[in-house]
Design brief:
Shape: elongated
Radius of gyration: 34 Å
Structural class: alpha+beta
Strand content: 5-15%
Number of helices: 13
Number of strands: 8
Helix content: 55-70%
């Protein structure tokens, strides 16, 4: 009720304009009675709770009131520098000084900041080399002086400095263009008759609209550079961690290197997908796109995909457990027994250990039983959850008292 009356009050309807907006007068005259408004694109039906009275009209005010209640898909995020220049009490001269100061600071950041980032990056690389961080020559041979977390921290800082040095000129260019266009809008606002005198009223309004959209786009582009900085930093840091893990696996070389390397590579690919998916969502929000319908759809799709891939995720998680605990390695002779009654499921030599399953090569003898002959493919989830592993290639080390 209050919203509909507010729309009528905003329309400025009077008795002399009854033909232009009859619904507003009708709402005012019936404001003491409860009512409901059923809106359409160009036609509204206003009816009281008493069904005897119903009126149809084609008021544009009802359509505007209804459109105001709907949620827009794209909204302008605003230009802070332009809003400060257009603040109350700020003259054109003050805005010009403010813009000039912003341009000078941006130019200094582009020159001094890039040199400073290069200097800091060199210092961090020296520290990484001394500490043996992931991706460095010392880290590949296992030299460690500051611990795993310290080395990972140096690698993250190095990735951040490298990407900041690369993207700083782009941010400075986008922000400088935003300041220049904001100054142009402020100048046209203070000289409101100049542009209509040159182009005409309609063309001047269109030019101002284009200038406003372009300024907003450049402001969003400057913010997008920050989003890309975070995404590229995380991607570079992930690449260094994956390279370090692969080097450590190659140095260990206990027979499961190829399978473990495949799992690490798959994990790196999944991490890249998560990083860039998050960057894409932040980019859409940065440009003013309403993400609520999209996130609702993604949430429902994620539930369906999670239920469909439940068995796959279970086997992958079990494969990670087998890689971490190492109850057997490629080349070991093992036997799998059920947990309940201890019956033999299969036995043979471990031929491969994949992220989702383990491959056993059975006994080649003709007299081999069904549990010993052929090649067996066993899900990793079944091994971890419902089987007992008997590794016949390992002799337990018993300490004497």
């Amino acid at each position: 009720m209050a919203a509909a009356m507010a729309a009528c009050n905003a329309s400025g309807t009077s008795a002399s304009r009854f033909k232009a907006a009859p619904a507003c007068l009708w709402l005012r005259s019936r404001s003491k009675a409860p009512f409901e408004v059923i809106g359409a694109t160009q036609r509204c039906i206003v009816k009281p709770c008493c069904p005897q009275k119903r009126r149809r009209h084609t008021s544009a005010r009802c359509s505007a009131a209804e459109a105001a209640t709907t949620e827009a898909w794209v909204t302008a995020t605003g230009v802070p520098i332009f809003q400060r220049m257009m603040a109350k009490g700020i003259t054109l001269q003050d805005a010009t000084v403010m813009g000039a100061q912003a341009l000078l600071v941006t130019a200094a950041a582009a020159i001094i900041g890039r040199a400073l980032l290069s200097y800091l990056d060199g210092k961090v690389n020296d520290a990484r080399t001394r500490a043996g961080s992931p991706g460095s020559a010392a880290g590949t041979v296992g030299a460690s002086s500051g611990g795993v977390l310290a080395r990972a921290g140096w690698a993250l800082v190095s990735s951040l400095l490298q990407q900041a040095r690369r993207l700083l000129p782009w941010w400075c260019a986008a922000f400088s263009a935003t300041v220049v266009l904001s100054l142009a809008q402020v100048a046209l606002h203070h000289n409101s008759q100049m542009l209509p005198g040159l182009l005409g009223r309609k063309s001047a309004a269109a030019a101002l609209a284009v200038l406003g959209h372009l300024t907003q786009f450049l402001q969003d582009a400057a913010e997008e550079v920050v989003v890309l900085l975070c995404a590229f930093t995380l991607q570079s840091f992930k690449d260094k961690l994956v390279a370090h893990a692969l080097d450590r696996l190659a140095a260990a070389d206990d027979g499961t290197t190829s399978d473990a390397a495949g799992l690490v590579s798959a994990g790196g690919t999944l991490a890249s997908l998560v990083i860039w998916s998050g960057a894409a969502l932040v980019t859409l929000a940065n440009y003013g796109v309403n993400l609520r319908p999209l996130l609702a759809s993604l949430g429902a799709s994620s539930i369906v995909a999670g239920l469909a891939a439940q068995s796959l995720l279970r086997n992958v998680a079990a494969g990670v457990t087998l890689y971490a605990t190492r109850p057997f390695a490629v080349g070991d002779r093992v036997a799998f027994y059920t947990v309940g009654d201890g019956s033999l499921v299969c036995q043979g030599t471990v031929a491969a250990l994949h992220p989702t399953r383990t491959v056993l090569a059975g006994e080649p003898e003709p007299e081999a039983t069904a549990e010993e002959a052929g090649t067996f493919f066993v899900n990793n989830g079944d091994i971890v959850e419902s089987m007992v592993v008997h590794n016949r290639s390992r002799t337990p080390q018993v300490k004497s008292g």
